[in-house]
Design goal:
This protein has 3 helices and no strands. The protein is mainly alpha-helical.
């Protein structure tokens, strides 16, 4: 059996239900400033698989890449049938 000698503490960004209205306010502000927002769902299993496949830890930069790729995929035109 493999013995672990050290543990790594991992922080996960999490929002409380009572903060959701504030997040929506921030989104509205961003839009009022002339920006376009797009909500990207982060699927934890998909992100973990993507990181494992690329040999990456699921740190902030990997999550940001995941979101950017999702936005690019959503913007790409679909092939006509």
């Amino acid at each position: 059996m493999k013995r672990r000698t050290a543990r790594t503490e991992i922080g996960l960004g999490w929002y409380r239900r009572e903060d959701w209205d504030r997040l929506l306010e921030i989104e509205k502000f961003v839009k009022r400033e002339g920006n376009i927002t797009k909500r990207i769902i982060v699927d934890p299993d998909e992100l973990a698989a993507r990181c494992a496949m690329r040999g990456r830890e699921p740190i902030a930069s990997a999550r940001a890449e995941y979101i950017c790729e999702k936005m690019t995929q959503a913007a790409a035109p679909t092939a006509s049938r």
